[in-house]
């Protein structure tokens, strides 16, 4: 009898330990944002996000402004939630962290992020038709434009996307205000949704996504390419030049062989003409016959589903448009002045641990070099003297692995007794 009771006690103890293990040790929470190097501005509302499982208690959210030495409460949310829209406090810090706690289960941001009182913004405008408006995505938050907006805003709250897309639109609808439409084209330029309107938002970049309406309306390859050239030229000639990224056409199941040929001819020409500023929306979306691949097909013969929208989103994200166009302060990839400095060459670029700055000068003086990350934070400053004639300055990069950004932006300031000349540069680290 005693043996039976002892065995029962062991069984009950095993059950207790198992239940306890499932209820405590089976719990997990992992913060996914902010998780290091974000730039979040006071008053903006990015989302704290996390993955969790098995939680039995509510989640307490807190933030630190001093790298975890002290904590301030944000909110308490149900254990079933995995995001919280946080209004960023008006206290600047380069040493910010977020912590989530449920009972004894805790996780903290892997690295610090910045809370800033900076109020500047960078706007990217999207021009397009129904795909960029979100048709085929369910819910609409899964559309490529919304996914893109969320992704870049979560990393840097300066970034904003304005979507001027309208179903059924073609390249003719978005031409600059005042452009003459050719005879036989029954289109009126929409002055609220065209390139002129886009430029009025003072964007840092414009993305154009016209999948198939042009070809469906019978517009030739040359007509489409001429319109893209007009759009790109309009942005380039703006008082502040704006770079344009152009997505290739996408497949449409109803097209015959000749229409498919137009689509692929436009695709090839856009890639050849605009190079890194073209975005491939064909590969992985179209099959060998020019139809929409079944796994990404929304079912209407025209649009892609959530899987397809995610492919398009990643194609845009991988272009690093936000990183290369949203610069802080006076930084720009445009030349400010040449004056007495000539033959300026910076190499190698992409760079690893150093770059050489070669130039000739009519005077002697001092060169000040400042490098910044994509958020405008100063990473490096150096000074070097230069003389009349040919000069070469060697700049050591990434000392102690301090440069973590892939894209580095900088200003070169040449100072002599006579004048000051500035040149802005962009470096890619590999």
Walk me through the topology.
Blueprint: H1 2-25, E1 28-33, E2 39-41, E3 47-53, E4 59-64, E5 72-77, E6 83-85, E7 93-102, E8 105-108, E9 113-116, E10 122-128, H2 130-133, H3 144-155, E11 159-163, H4 195-200, E12 205-209, H5 213-216, H6 221-236, E13 244-247, H7 257-274, E14 278-279, H8 306-317, H9 321-325, E15 341-347, E16 354-361, E17 365-372, E18 378-386, E19 389-396, E20 407-415, E21 420-428
Parallel strand pairs: 2-9, 10-11, 10-12, 12-13, 13-14
Antiparallel strand pairs: 1-3, 3-6, 4-5, 4-7, 7-8, 7-9, 15-16, 16-19, 17-18, 17-20, 20-21
Helix pairs in contact: 3-8, 6-7
Describe the structure.
Strands 2, 4, 5, 7, 8 and 9 form a 6-stranded mixed beta sheet that branches. The protein has a 5-stranded parallel beta sheet with strand order 11-10-12-13-14, with helices on both faces. A 4-stranded antiparallel beta sheet has the order 18-17-20-21, with no helix packed on it. It is built from 9 helices and 21 strands. Helices cover 23% and strands 30% of the residues. It has 430 residues and is α+β, with helices and mostly antiparallel strands. Helix 3 crosses helix 8 (306-317) and helix 6 packs parallel to helix 7 (257-274). The chain has 3 domains: 24-116, Immunoglobulin-like; 122-325, Rossmann fold; 341-428, Immunoglobulins (Immunoglobulin-like, Sandwich), CATH 2.60.40.10. The longest helix is centred in the first third of the chain and has 24 residues, at 2-25. 33% of the residues are buried.
